[in-house]
Design a protein that fits this description.
heteropentamer, A mainly alpha (102), B mainly alpha (619), C mainly alpha (167), D mainly alpha (510), E mainly alpha (499), D: 510 residues, mainly alpha, 3 domains, two-stranded antiparallel sheet, 21 helices, globular, E: 499 residues, two-stranded antiparallel ribbon
Chain lengths: 102, 619, 167, 510, 499
């Protein structure tokens, strides 16, 4: 038996790692990956709640399903944009993209 | 006829309006308009005077303004005093109008000159006819305006422009005092009408200190207008104006308005001994002060100007010491002989091509008979030689001063009388006797100028006779319906004394400037310091410049800096800060998406933190 | 210390460790692989929670499709062991760390202070797929359709943007 | 049924503006005559109203009120009406604007826009003076902002942008504060009447504030705060000492006509608002802060005069003289006597004419000599005697010479301040005396300016200047004539104002 | 138990029709070659949207719901109409814009716009976390793509990447917040959540607060309020101008509708009469909202002061406007009141902003510059456009006789009556600051001469129509607001969801 708090804690940690990644990594692919990590954390939350939460029902897993597919779609679009960006600028270093500022 | 007294000021007004619009086409002929108008006014005022002596009177008022429950009215009324004044003003004005026709005929703006004269006559007559002190004040200001315009008539002369401004400003100072006095008076008595005011004062509705304050404020106005010390500085400079103007405004009528004001408000002054004292002392100081300056001045017009100041001081002195009739009587006689003197001076100046320094004249006696004789009459009159007008009135003044009981005032009066005689004849001997020291050979002027002189000379001789110890015509007339207390009358010794000092003064002048028995520089060499002081008019102008003008301008400059740098500076600073803050915020948008994320996180945390602190979480 | 707990710990540690590796490794390819492993571990957790359907989806979509996508993305951009190093501005790194740290702190504080009953993972006799299906088409059909359009939109957009123009 | 005259009057200029809008901009003369025609009709209309105005009652007249829209609980009405306070200002507005439009015939660039903006401005100003609904009041108040911004910004002088934006933002801030206060007043009124009165109507609010159903919401502190913010809002427009700095820039940069309207009418909206709303709704607070108002008034008089004394630019000098003269208004209001209050209103009107005339003269001279620097002018009486004469007349009016309107207002204000109730205004007499010094300074700077510009030696390069053109006589004579009319027979004004003033004063505790 | 099977699907007619026609248009695009100008698609889309709008008007008045996930009520109707109107205008703008830009895939552009619209509509009428999330994502993902549609333009792609990375993160935040709400209530239905949240807050204050704040971060990002606004200027500047218009108008308004729905139904809750419940969590959170609103107004306006690029300026002005829109939420007297105000101001905001953008597109495309100078002498080049722009700017600045003024006054009024005068003060002061930059543009238009190489402005029909319509509405609403206000005041906004 595992207390749900642990799952939630794990999720929280993953979420924060992902967030940290978004904020500090310079490789755009990794930044997108970090976003995925955050979404994963969300999924863990949802599934955990749906399975061993205070109110048990399947809805959470349905929700998870949606989140996963949305995440996939986002990754697809994100990478597409990434590629276009690379074609234009020849770099996927986050730091280098500051044409728009002030 | 007296019901139409209001027409008296209207004629000159009409003249003014006509000249204002069509004057530029009339040019020279403008003078006829002015002269006709004044002639009509003169006839009318003579009629009015006789009817007034006959005991008739007339008053008419209309509502002027209403506020709250109180209403101010405007109109006219005829009293003995202003009946007399009407004559004085119209006579002198008329003569000046005539005189100017010749004197100004070279000037191409003569029509403007006559329109101004018309406006002035209108204002002065309106002032005289006023039934309440507010209306008096209104016309009081208008005559001030006219004086400003006429002094600055030759505006292209910088001195003239400056003199005009100085005249207006200096009198303005007094006027504000007067205005405040009026307002206080109104708030105290609830009316501007003379009658209502005096009855309220007698009924004791106004407490004594207030009366004193009001009286002094009003007197301040008189000080400004009548060029009393310390506001006398404008009058000598005002001589920059055309000489007829000096004769009319700055000798006979306007400057006398101050005295007239005090006369009109006399019951109020009587109600406050302090005020009376102030009046008396101001008068006395002014009298001797101006006389001393006149002793050494060499500009014919300025000598006369100082003499005017001194004489006005005399009148004030008389009024201040209870000599109501004496003061006003002297006002009248002075109007005639001082106008005479000024016009005479004008005639002289005209003859010597606008030179005014008496040292460049001399020997005019043989060259300009009429002018010289009339001028001599005027001089004798002012010196107080019987039976000329000056003698009677001046003697009244001395009597009042003596009766006032203040020996100091009396002494001053006597000394001044002596000086008057001296400087007048210093002027006369220097300018009219001896040999001519100028370059253009002068000769007698046309009739247009000499006739007015003669008329005035005649008046200067006879005017005194209406109020002699042998027959107090004027006194009875004036005292008909005002209660101004006991009027002093000089005894014989006083008459003898005044004659003596007059003769003494003349003799001294004769000895110094005609006979040369006493060297001219006897005194100057003895007291060079005093002489210098007098020459520089006690450095009054310099003093005022240092004490009032320059500090004010300095303060203005300071405030201007303050306004630009501090008051407006703050405004601009706020604006600038806003933009700078905006800029600094904008700099955070450095194009780094990670910065954006970070800002969101930190910002969010901060907001929450603030919120929690405000809402008092965390304990 | 039961089996569940052990498994949980194993998966959890793998997930976190791999997540950290994703951040820390230098070679981009290694990082992507680490990410894949982290996904696997999460899938494991799902099984542990009795959500087998989601677990499988997780493996198919994340560990499969998404990872492949990432690899593509990697291949089509700079993949020859480019290493950018960490963010140039130190203040940025520190602040990010602090910020995220605080966030984590608050979260953990909140989470660990929740007292929720500890229960066995729910097991549906017909399997979660059946339940999910019913729920999905019974209540959430509207978002499902919306999902469809979302994917279409993403598809179109991705194609349009990534398409290489024939010059 | 004939429409309400006021409504007609307000929207007439708008119609005129529309006509101009559809006129092709090549037909400048048509446009000019359209604009001047419109404003002249407005002038006539206002005079008709003046004629029909019943001088014997203190109630609002020519009332016209229709519901406009409602924010689901508060009803906003279009309600207009006039009493003795707004009547003179209404006429002033139409007169000054009409004459200013005559004066603006010299404008040759982008004529069409100019007249459209001016007519919009006219609508705004008229609206301010007649609206009884605070929301409407604010609306018109703001409406005057935009046209003036454009007029200054397009036809202005060298630093027009700075001036325009300063005017916009500064006075915009003022009206912003005003708006806040209005809504607060509304809310307080609602609370005070237990949500019976949900209205922006000034009269109703005045009534509620006078006798609230539950007084505890209207604590003295709240009242004070409301009044002070109102005061600040209007002080910016008037302008009062610390908030005056927008005025010199705006006046100096604005084209002649705009300066005339700005000084002639726009400033008056501040004074009007202060009396109508500040004193009207919170008389007790007005009385309570009388001292503050009076002191600020005196500061305005003296400070403005001192600054005018050291100006080198003729137009800026006139601008500062405006500031100085607005002090009289404050002084009059602060005295809380019938005469003082009337003095304030008289001053609003007379300064409207006089300052407009002054600005016109400065403009006319600038147009000829191309300079406003006093030291560069001089002896103008020789080359342009008529202009110089009117200049002198204007200056004298501004000095407060009897027979011209300025004197009457000063006299009334002084009677007021010296007669002020010591309980309301302790030490009023001292203030009065200082103000008197200010009057002397006024004479000083104006005469100084006259001496330096119209008197003295004429500069060679100004020899051949052309004197006043026929069309220039219209504004000159018009403005001077009204000034003289009021100066010679003030009753024409006072019998309109008096009852209203008495009514206002009756609200004050005393 | 499974309510969707026997639900009244007619309620979804507008969405269904829109979806179908969007697909039709998409397929038409396939049939007409890959590239090339396809203005007819634009016109088709406009027709589609008009049809949808009509249907919305017909169906949504009679309220109802599908399985409690898709509700239809006056609220949804009003906001859907706003959205559809905005998109119509945006497409009208695009017709001109795309005509100038060969490199953009036109068919895809329009169909993506339509999908985004669909998402927005879904957002507006969803009463369920999942639906709401899907709608949001549908909108967002389409917007990501649209932002990057000028794929050979560095700025465009850069803005797209920034948008998607930050947007993805924001979604993650939202989801994370939602996950707790779901977990603790066991339901994704806003109503259920609303019923239980108070008790839950007593039990788990920290977690509930956290989930609320996380969602706030996420939605705050979508509606670009400080401090989650940083992306907006860059994205707005980089994206194709019509897309910028779309983001400013549609995304923001849809986001606000969503926030209203979520907050007032899910978290704060309100009673039968649409008034705030005494135990509402609003009293716990309003201060956060107030601070955010204040910050948004201040910072948005301050930074806008310093901008030179028009699109970027509009971004900041949009942020400031979002701040104004946020005030009624922060200062809630009664939810229905706030909804009314926001609904009205949304209309005002949409018309004035879209009108402005129509002109901005025209001018920037015509001169090829995006800085202020592109506007110089506009009055001389095209008086109508200049005047219209003036009206829009005046309305944005909140000066009288424009829709913006009425809306702002009303917000103001609400803030004061909710005893939040300080917020009102900040609002009005900042809007005075905003005079400066709005009138700065006017200065360019009226007081400067045109750039010599800018010829006379040729105004296409589409733009003219768009501008005229928005202009008309801006003024009409300014002069006769009661046309709309009266109805709004009596709307029973979300009667299905009262708690």
């Amino acid at each position: 038996m595992v207390s749900i708090n642990l799952y939630l804690a794990l999720a929280a940690i993953l979420f924060c790692i992902g967030l940290y990644g978004v904020l500090t990594r310079r490789h755009l692919v990794i930044v997108l990956a970090s976003v995925e990590l955050m979404l994963n954390a969300v999924n863990i939350n949802l599934v955990a709640f749906s399975s061993i939460g205070p109110v048990v029902n399947i809805t959470g897993q349905v929700f998870t399903l949606f989140v996963i597919s949305v995440a996939a779609a986002e990754v697809a679009v994100g990478l597409a944009i990434l590629i276009a960006l690379y074609r234009n600028k020849g770099s996927i270093d986050v730091i280098k993209h500051d044409l728009l500022r002030w | 006829m007296i019901q139409n007294a209001w027409l008296i000021p209207v004629f000159p007004l009409i003249a003014f309006i006509i000249l204002l619009f069509v004057g530029r086409f009339l040019k020279e002929k403008a003078s006829y308009v002015g002269i006709t108008a004044l002639a009509l006014s003169f006839i009318l005022s003579v009629l009015v005077l006789f009817e007034r002596i006959g005991g008739e009177t007339s008053t008419y008022v209309i509502d002027w303004i209403t506020f709250g429950s109180s209403t101010i009215t405007m109109g006219y009324e005829v009293t003995p005093l202003n009946a007399m004044m009407l004559i004085v003003v119209t006579v002198v004005s008329l003569l000046v109008h005539v005189f100017s026709k010749e004197y100004m005929h070279e000037d191409d703006r003569i029509h403007v000159f006559y329109s101004y004269l018309g406006l002035f006559s209108f204002s002065m007559l309106g002032l005289v006819l006023s039934p309440n002190i507010l209306q008096l004040f209104i016309f009081w200001e208008l005559v001030g305006l006219c004086s400003f315009l006429l002094v600055g008539f030759w505006y292209f002369k910088p001195e003239a422009a400056a003199a005009a401004k100085k005249a207006f400003l200096t009198t303005r100072i007094g006027d504000v005092g007067l205005l405040i006095g009026l307002v206080l008076l109104f708030n105290a008595t609830g009316s501007f009408e003379y009658g209502a005011i005096f009855s309220a004062v007698e009924a004791g509705l106004v407490n004594d200190t207030m009366i004193t304050v009001i009286a002094i404020c009003i007197f301040l106005g008189a000080v400004g207008k009548s060029a009393q010390f310390p506001l006398h500085v404008w009058l000598p400079d005002a001589m920059e104006g055309p000489t007829p103007v000096s004769a009319l405004i700055h000798a006979a009528t306007m400057v006398a308005a101050g005295v007239y004001l005090v006369g009109v408000m006399y019951p109020l002054f009587l109600a406050s001994s302090t005020a009376m004292t102030v009046v008396a002392y101001t008068g006395a100081i002014t009298a001797i002060f101006a006389a001393t300056i006149a002793l050494v001045n060499t500009d014919i017009k300025r000598i006369l100007a100082y003499s005017t100041i001194s004489q006005l001081g005399f009148m004030m002195l008389a009024l201040g010491t209870g000599g109501y009739v004496a003061g006003l009587f002297h006002l009248m006689t002075h109007a005639f002989f001082k106008a005479l003197l000024f016009l005479g001076a004008g005639s002289v100046i005209y003859a010597v091509h606008h030179r005014q320094d008496i040292r460049e004249m001399g020997g005019l006696w043989s060259r300009m008979k009429v002018t010289s004789i009339t001028f001599l009459i005027g001089a004798l009159a002012i010196a107080g030689i019987p039976p000329l007008a000056g003698f009677w009135s001046k003697e009244g003044v001395l009597a009042a001063a003596w009766e006032g009981g203040d020996i100091f005032l009396f002494t001053i009066a006597v000394i001044t009388a002596f000086m008057t005689a001296f400087y007048m004849f210093r002027l006369f001997f220097t300018a009219f006797t001896g040999k001519f020291r100028g370059d253009h050979e002068p000769h007698e002027n046309k009739k247009l100028m000499t006739v007015p002189l003669s008329v005035l000379a005649f008046l200067a001789i006879v005017a005194g006779l209406i109020n002699t110890p042998f027959g107090l015509g004027l006194e009875n007339f004036l005292l008909q319906d005002v209660n101004v207390g006991y009027q002093a009358h000089g005894e014989l010794w006083l008459a003898v004394l005044s004659i003596a000092i007059a003769v003494g003064g003349i003799a001294l002048a004769w000895a110094m400037y005609y006979k040369g028995a006493i060297a001219k520089d006897t005194f100057t060499s003895k007291f060079p310091g005093v002489h210098k002081l007098l020459l520089n008019k006690y450095y009054m102008d310099e003093l005022y410049a240092k004490v009032f003008v320059q500090p004010t301008v300095a303060i203005g400059r300071f405030f201007w800096e303050l306004d630009r740098n501090i008051v407006d500076g703050i405004v601009n600073f706020v604006g600038a800060t806003t933009r700078i803050t905006g800029r600094s915020f904008a700099k955070r948008h450095d194009g780094q998406l990670q910065t954006y994320g970070l800002v969101s996180i930190i910002g969010g945390l901060v907001v929450v933190a603030i919120a929690f602190v405000i809402r008092g979480y965390f304990g | 210390m039961n089996t569940q707990m052990i498994f949980f710990l194993v998966f959890a540690i793998i997930a976190i460790a791999c997540a950290v590796l994703v951040m820390k490794l230098s070679r981009i390819s290694h990082r992507v692989v680490a990410m894949a492993f982290s996904f696997f571990a999460v899938a494991g957790l799902y099984f542990l929670l009795g959500a087998e359907f989601i677990g499988i989806i997780q493996i198919i979509v994340y560990a499969g499709a998404v990872t492949i996508l990432f690899i593509f993305g990697m291949m089509m951009t700079e993949h020859r062991n480019v290493t950018f190093g960490s963010h140039p501005r130190k203040a940025h790194r520190v602040l990010s760390f602090l910020g995220v740290g605080t966030l984590l702190g608050v979260l953990l504080y909140g989470i660990l202070n929740m007292d929720l009953a500890t229960k066995e993972p729910t097991i549906y006799e017909k399997g979660t797929a059946h339940e999910i299906g019913l729920e999905l088409y019974g209540n959430y059909v509207v978002p499902l359709i919306g999902m469809g359009f979302l994917l279409t939109a993403a598809l179109i957009g991705a194609i349009v943007i990534a398409r290489k123009e024939a010059k | 049924m004939i429409p309400n005259l006021l409504t007609l009057l307000i929207f007439l200029p708008l119609v005129g503006a529309l006509f101009i809008l559809v006129t092709p901009k090549e037909y400048t003369n048509a446009i000019r005559s359209l604009a001047i025609g419109t404003s002249s009709v407005a002038l006539i209309l206002s005079l008709v109203i003046w004629g029909q105005f019943d001088r014997s009652i203190s109630e609002m007249q020519f009332l016209h009120s229709v519901p406009w829209f409602d924010f689901n609980i508060v009803q906003i009405n279009y309600s207009v009406g006039i009493d003795g306070l707004s009547m003179p200002l209404l006429v002033l507005t139409t007169i000054v604007t009409t004459l200013a439009l005559f004066a603006s015939l010299t404008i040759t660039s982008r004529v069409k826009e100019f007249y459209i903006w001016s007519l919009l401005l006219l609508t705004g100003m008229l609206g301010v003076f007649v609206s009884l609904d605070m929301f409407l009041f604010f609306l018109f108040f703001e409406l005057t902002l935009i046209p003036m911004f454009f007029i200054i910004g397009i036809w202005g002088g060298k630093e027009k942008y700075y001036a325009a934006f300063k005017f916009l933002v500064y006075t915009g801030l003022g009206s912003a504060i005003m708006f806040i206060t209005f809504i607060v007043i509304f809310y307080l009124g609602a609370q005070a009447s237990n949500f019976y009165y949900l209205t922006f109507n000034m009269l109703d609010l005045a009534y509620i504030f006078a006798n609230p159903d539950n007084p505890e919401v209207l604590t003295s502190g709240v009242r004070a705060a409301v009044f002070l913010s109102l005061f600040v809002a209007f002080a910016i427009k008037l302008p009062v000492f610390p908030f005056h700095t927008w005025l010199p820039n705006a006046h100096v940069e604005a084209p002649t006509a705009a300066s005339m309207i700005l000084a002639g009418v726009l400033l008056k909206m501040g004074g009007y608002g202060l009396i109508r709303i500040g004193v009207g709704i919170l008389p007790d607070q007005a009385a309570r802060f009388a001292m503050l108002i009076a002191i600020l008034g005196v500061i305005n008089i003296v400070y403005g005069a001192l600054l005018a004394l050291v100006q080198t630019d003729l137009k800026r000098l006139v601008a500062f003289s405006s500031i100085s003269h607005m002090g009289i208004v404050l002084l009059g209001i602060a005295s809380f006597t019938a005469s003082g209050m009337q003095g304030a209103i008289f001053q609003l009107v007379s300064h409207g004419f006089i300052s407009a005339l002054l600005f016109f003269m400065v403009g006319a001279i600038y147009e000829r000599t191309k300079t406003r620097t006093i030291s560069e002018l001089g002896g103008l009486s020789k080359s342009v005697p008529i202009l110089a004469g009117f200049m002198l007349a204007a200056a004298m009016a501004s000095v407060g010479l009897p027979g011209l309107s300025g004197f009457v207002s000063e006299l009334l204000a002084f009677i007021g301040i010296f007669g002020a109730d010591a309980s309301i205004l302790p030490g009023a007499k001292v203030l009065g005396v200082i103000a008197g010094l200010g009057i002397i300074l006024t004479a000083a700077y104006l005469l100084w300016a006259m001496q330096r510009t119209t008197f003295g030696q004429l500069d060679e390069k100004y020899k051949g200047l052309s004197d006043a053109r026929p069309l220039e006589y219209i504004p000159m004579i018009g403005l001077l004539a009204f000034s003289i009319l009021i100066g010679v027979y003030p009753n024409i004004l006072s019998d309109v104002i008096n009852i209203t003033v008495i009514d206002i004063l009756s609200k004050i505790g005393g | 138990m499974y309510s969707a099977f026997n639900a009244d699907w007619s309620l979804m007619t507008p969405e269904i029709v829109l979806a179908a026609l969007a697909l039709v248009i998409f397929t038409l695009d396939f049939m007409t070659g890959i590239k090339g100008k396809k203005p007819f698609l634009g016109r088709l889309s406009i027709i589609t949207l008009i049809i949808t709008a009509v249907l919305v008007f017909l169906t949504n008045r009679t309220g109802g719901s599908i399985a409690d996930v898709f509700v239809v009520d006056p609220f949804s109707m009003v906001f859907k109409l706003i959205i559809l109107f905005s998109v119509i205008i945006v497409i009208a703008i695009s017709l001109y814009y795309l005509d100038k830009h060969e490199d953009i895939y036109q068919g895809e552009f329009y169909s993506l716009l339509l999908f985004a619209t669909l998402g927005a509509m879904l957002m507006v009428s969803s009463a369920d976390l999942i639906t709401l999330f899907i709608g949001l994502e549908l909108l967002s993902i389409s917007s990501y793509c649209l932002a990057g549609f000028k794929k050979h333009n560095r700025k465009s792609t850069e803005s797209a990447i920034k948008y998607i990375v930050l947007g993805g993160t924001a979604s993650a935040f939202i989801l994370y917040g939602m996950s707790f709400l779901y977990g603790l209530t066991g339901s994704t239905s806003l109503v259920v959540i609303g019923q239980n949240i108070n008790t839950l807050f007593v039990d788990f204050p920290v977690i509930i607060s956290v989930s609320f704040l996380f969602m706030l971060v996420g939605f705050g990002f979508k509606i670009s309020i400080v401090p989650f606004h940083m992306w907006a200027p860059d994205v707005y500047e980089g994206s194709p101008t019509p897309v910028t218009a779309f983001l400013t108008a549609v995304s923001k308004i849809a986001g606000f509708a969503l926030v209203l729905r979520l907050f007032y139904v899910g978290i704060f809750g309100f009673g039968e009469r649409g008034s705030l419940l005494p135990d509402s969590l609003y009293h716990e959170f309003f201060i956060v909202l107030a601070i955010i609103a204040a910050l948004t107004m201040i910072i948005g306006n301050l930074i806008a002061l310093t901008q030179q690029n028009v699109k970027r300026l509009m971004a900041y002005s949009g942020i400031a406007q979002a701040g104004y829109l946020f005030v009624p939420i922060a200062a809630t007297l009664a939810p229905y009141f706030s909804m009314t105000i926001i609904a009205f101001y949304s209309i005002a905001y949409v018309v004035m902003v879209l009108g402005a953008f129509a002109i901005i597109t025209l001018v920037t495309e015509d001169t090829g510059r995006e800085d202020f100078s592109s506007f110089s002498g506009l009055y001389k080049r095209s008086p109508f456009m200049a005047i219209a722009m003036t009206v829009f700017l005046v309305s944005l600045a909140g000066l009288p006789l424009t829709a913006g003024f009425v809306g702002k006054a009303w917000i103001f009024f609400g803030a004061v009556t909710a005893d939040m005068t300080w917020l009102a003060v900040i609002m009005i002061v900042t809007s005075v600051i905003s005079f400066y930059y709005y009138f700065g543009i006017m200065k360019q238009m009226f007081m400067r001469d045109p750039n010599p190489n800018d010829a006379d402005l040729k105004v296409p029909v589409g733009i003219t129509v768009a501008v005229s319509i928005t202009l008309g509405i801006t003024i009409i609403l300014g002069v006769m607001p009661n046309l709309i206000v009266d109805n709004f005041s009596h709307f029973n906004w979300m009667y299905m969801l009262t708690r």
